[in-house]
């Protein structure tokens, strides 16, 4: 696996695919700089080598050229974050961009206009990728958030750098973290899968059964498993058409020696509301009119014991409806246990969709080993898929 550390960038121009798809407010100000901060180590290493950087990214989903999606809005924030005055080019390909890049001096950084102003980007157009390839000597992919897309700038462009392509430090770290959980992590390995539906996590569960020793299943998924085994789940979220599948998963887990841990009790409510009447209930005895919206205290005690004995932990998906305070306690408790296990030396990776939001909201970001920067890309990695943006560098 080639990374930026395998290259000396002295007098070279790095064409870097970053993920600067940052949130903007109505005044077009960046409201969360995480993605810019994450790209900084790669940029700094290249500049310190004596190289220059051409940054390319998408922003949102524009339909053609739309001012609101211009990356010009973020230039000042990028300059401030990386500590270098960044030049902006109002196009991502063509004569002007090529001219700017030709005159680029070591230590300089330019940001190109939104790649998605061209439909060719998401179409993975080869001619467009070739035009991009003229803007650097070495191609660096540091955008995990788009690594699951075979777009021109994330995948196709790599063809034009057969020898001179590598991962940036952010993408390398994502790959290493996933690898730790999926293949090289210290045992026992635990996956905690929560969230709303079995149907959206099924491929992950099936793939992960070969990799883990313990699997905690929580959140809304719980009730499909409980009902499939004959329990009463009341009005809890449940996918009746996935009950067969749930039983099959339990059977597969048994055959593979994976211990599955489901909640035994839940915090149930008489309405899907933060101010509903609530009661702790046995997970198999929820009456009609009530729905389980968070893990109960006995379940949490069980989960704590499992988490604290594991050395490698993957967390994807909340244990309850964490967006409502009343039902956030299970997810917070789980975060506490994972933080404690991490402090005791375990490796913990949080990734994919809502778990990242939960981890940030409850302040666990610095208490786990790694928080992934890619939602969809992380989910596809956990499903066992080879991401095209990663494959393109490895080829
Ligand atoms: P996902 O994107 O699949 O990780 O699902 C996350 C969503 O699952 C969050 O918005 C939670 O509110 C929701 N969720 C978690 N537990 C439950 C539950 N018991 N009932 C309904 N929704 C839940």
From TrEMBL:
**Catalytic activity field:** (2R)-3-phosphoglycerate + ATP = (2R)-3-phospho-glyceroyl phosphate + ADP
Residues binding ATP, per UniProt = 201, 292, 323, 352-355
Q: Which residues cross the membrane?
A: none
Pfam entry (one): PGK
Q: What top-tier enzyme class does this entry carry?
A: transferase
GO molecular function terms attached to this record: kinase activity
Tagged with keyword Transferase: yes
The metabolic or biological pathway listed in the UniProt record of this protein is: Carbohydrate degradation; glycolysis; pyruvate from D-glyceraldehyde 3-phosphate: step 2/5
What are the UniProt keywords, alphabetically?
Answer: ATP-binding, Cytoplasm, Glycolysis, Kinase, Nucleotide-binding, Transferase
Q: Where in the cell is it found?
A: Cytoplasm
Cite the InterPro entries for this sequence: Phosphoglycerate_kinase, Phosphoglycerate_kinase_N, Phosphoglycerate_kinase_sf
Q: What is its main location?
A: cytoplasm
Q: To which protein family does this belong? A: Belongs to the phosphoglycerate kinase family.
HAMAP family in the record, alphabetically? Phosphoglyc_kinase
User: What does the subunit section of this Swiss-Prot or TrEMBL entry state?
Assistant: Monomer.
Q: Which PANTHER family match?
A: PHOSPHOGLYCERATE KINASE, PHOSPHOGLYCERATE KINASE 1, CHLOROPLASTIC-RELATED
Protein name, please?
A: Phosphoglycerate kinase
UniProt organism field:
Meridianimaribacter flavus
């Amino acid at each position: 696996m080639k990374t930026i550390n395998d290259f000396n960038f002295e007098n070279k121009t790095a064409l870097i695919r970053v993920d600067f798809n940052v949130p903007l407010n109505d005044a077009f100000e960046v409201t969360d700089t995480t993605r810019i901060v994450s790209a900084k180590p790669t940029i700094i290493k290249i500049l310190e080598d004596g190289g220059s950087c051409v940054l390319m990214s998408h922003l949102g989903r524009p339909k053609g050229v739309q001012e609101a999606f211009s990356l010009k809005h973020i230039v000042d924030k990028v300059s401030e974050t990386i500590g270098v005055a960044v030049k902006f080019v109002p196009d991502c390909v063509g004569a002007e961009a090529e001219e700017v890049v030709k005159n680029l001096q070591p230590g300089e950084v330019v940001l190109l206009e939104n790649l998605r102003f061209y439909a060719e980007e998401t179409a993975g157009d080869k001619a467009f990728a070739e035009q991009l390839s003229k803007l650097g000597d070495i191609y660096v992919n540091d955008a995990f958030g788009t690594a699951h897309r075979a777009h021109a700038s994330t995948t196709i462009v790599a063809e034009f750098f057969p020898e001179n392509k590598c991962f940036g430090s952010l993408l390398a770290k994502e790959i290493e973290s996933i690898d730790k959980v999926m293949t090289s992590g210290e045992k026992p390995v635990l996956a905690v899968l929560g969230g709303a539906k079995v149907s959206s996590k099924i491929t992950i569960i099936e793939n992960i059964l070969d990799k883990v020793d313990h699997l905690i299943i929580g959140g809304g998924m719980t009730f499909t498993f409980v009902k499939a085994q004959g329990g009463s789940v009341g009005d809890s979220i449940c996918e009746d058409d996935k009950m067969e599948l749930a039983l099959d998963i339990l059977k597969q887990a048994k055959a593979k020696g994976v211990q599955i841990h489901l909640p035994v009790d839940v915090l149930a409510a008489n309405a899907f509301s933060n101010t509903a009447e609530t009661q702790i209930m046995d997970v198999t005895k929820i009456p009609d009119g009530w729905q389980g919206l968070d893990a109960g205290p006995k379940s949490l005690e069980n989960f704590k014991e499992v988490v604290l004995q594991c050395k490698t932990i993957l967390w994807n998906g909340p244990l309850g409806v964490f967006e409502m305070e009343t039902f956030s306690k299970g997810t917070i408790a789980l975060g506490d246990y994972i933080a404690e296990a991490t402090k005791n030396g375990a490796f913990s990776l949080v990734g994919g969709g809502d778990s990242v939001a939960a981890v940030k909201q409850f302040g666990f970001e610095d208490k786990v080993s790694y928080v992934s920067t890619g939602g969809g890309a992380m989910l596809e990695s956990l499903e066992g898929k080879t991401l095209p943006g990663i494959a393109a560098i490895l080829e």
